[in-house]
């Protein structure tokens, strides 16, 4: 028994360790964010409400069916239900009925409300999908920020390691009297500055990890991390398409545009529904009813009055009524006219918003297109600068090692390399993210592969 308990505890410990060591990929982060985001869950509930509205609209087109029953007792003066004459007695009465009503015509409002409910469900789906698109972009941006900060931290640590080697070597040279002590102090200052860079880099990695975890709504920040991998510039031929081509394609599938277009159609349906109130309403009804009373008296075959039993009375006094009713709107305080005007205004606002959304999309695509070109040039320039700084640093290191350069000038060369490496990393991931945004507008799913 103790062995089983020990094995179970060991197994749990292994699972716990694996859970803590999990490294999240971009695809896993995006999928988890879409699955667990609270805003998405709220929008999904809105979608469920829209589906219920469809059921309501369908129910309004169907006949209703209602049943009623009344049981009463009366003592004293009353009207005899058999002969409608006044009487002074105690009576026990039962009335029951079943009725049905159906709207035959109401200006086609029921049909249009049904169409509107269907369209509203579609619009709610578009809005939900648009939110998912935004979350995917936000997660990708946060993920790339973590990677960028991690790469910079690796660079800072590598630079510090090199400086520490130079520091140890300089100490030996100072002790042997080859170089002045001022050179040692300069390198110590450089090492202290790089140590501060490492601390700041660690803080940036932690903050960016927390930001990503918050997007995923994960609160176990200490055990949350992303996969340890570096990404090179991904191949892409997106710039073979003009910004106009990308915009035209985006109009055909973007969920925010489809949602905005659906709002125009919803406003058109609202206007038709409002105008339907100008028309008469035609409805039909059918009712079956019966009753029982213990004071009922009817003659038998010999003309002698008697009180039929409960079941017999239900059959004797049952009846059916049916008919149609027309309601013609004549004057209702201008409410119908004002509702139509409001619907016309809302339709015009929806159309303007639709045009504004298309204009915003075109502006965003034009900006993304320019950003991709600009940030790629910035990345190329940063790489060239880094290469030049490294060559200059190697030359400065050779001169420093033979005593032809003082420690201050050497530390400046090293600082310029540090800054160039940080700029190269930053511009690389800035370019990757802008590239993914432009591809996303073209319908290419977010991926770093």
TrEMBL record:
Keywords: Cell outer membrane, Membrane, Signal, Transmembrane, Transmembrane beta strand, Transport. Its main location: membrane. The keyword Signal applies. GO terms for cellular component: cell outer membrane; efflux pump complex. GO terms for molecular function: efflux transmembrane transporter activity; porin activity. The keyword Repeat does not apply. Residues 1-19 form the signal peptide. It is found in: Cell outer membrane. Belongs to the outer membrane factor (OMF) (TC 1.B.17) family. This is Outer membrane protein. The lineage of its organism: Bacteria, Pseudomonadati, Bacteroidota, Flavobacteriia, Flavobacteriales.
